[in-house]
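User: Before I run my own analysis I want an independent prediction to cross-check against. Here's the chain; please return only the C-alpha cells and, at the end, one sentence I can use as a sanity check.
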Amino acid sequence: NGVWAQQAKLLATGGATGDQCGISVAIDGNTAVVGALGDDIPGKFNAGSALVFVRSGTTWTQQAQLNAADSASFDAFGFAVALSGNTAVVGAIFDDHPGMGSAGSAYVFTRSGTTWTQQAKLTAADAAGGDEMGVSADVFGDTAVIGAYRCNHSERSDAGAAYVFQRTAGVWSQQVK
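Assistant: C-alpha cells:
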C-alpha cells in the first residue's frame, strides 16, 4: 500500500569485524547477493566474499557464501555484485593479473537448485595494472557489463571504461569495450 517497512536485517553467518558486509547489494525476486569485501577466508586476509540470501515468505536465510576459486588476500572480492535469475557476478577490483597489480576482474557464478558454482572469471582483453575492473557490475540474462573506472585511454589517465561480456553455451567472452 505504498508503505515501506524493514522486513529483515541480512547478516553474514560467522560475520566478523571489518568484513564490510553490505558494501554492495543486488536483488532479483527472492534472492539477494551482498558483498563483503573485507571478509577473511582461510589463509587469505581481506580476500572478500559475496553472500547469497533467499527469502521464503518474510524469512531470509543465507544460502551460500561465494568466493573466487583463485582468491588472494586484499582482492576486494564483493566490491560490486549483480544478479539476474540464477546468475551472479561479483567484482574483485584489486585482483592481480601476472605482472599487473590491481587490474581487477569479475567472477560469474551460477545456481543449480541451492548450489552455486563459479562459471567464469571475466578479465579485460587489454587489462592493465591499476584498472580496478570490477568496481561496478550488472548482468541481465547472458550479458554482463563490468566497469573499470581507472582504465587509461591514450593519454587520458583514469578515463574509465565498461566491458561487455556475452555468454554463449556457458562460455563468456568479451564482446566490446
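Sanity check: The two ends are 43 Å apart (CA to CA).
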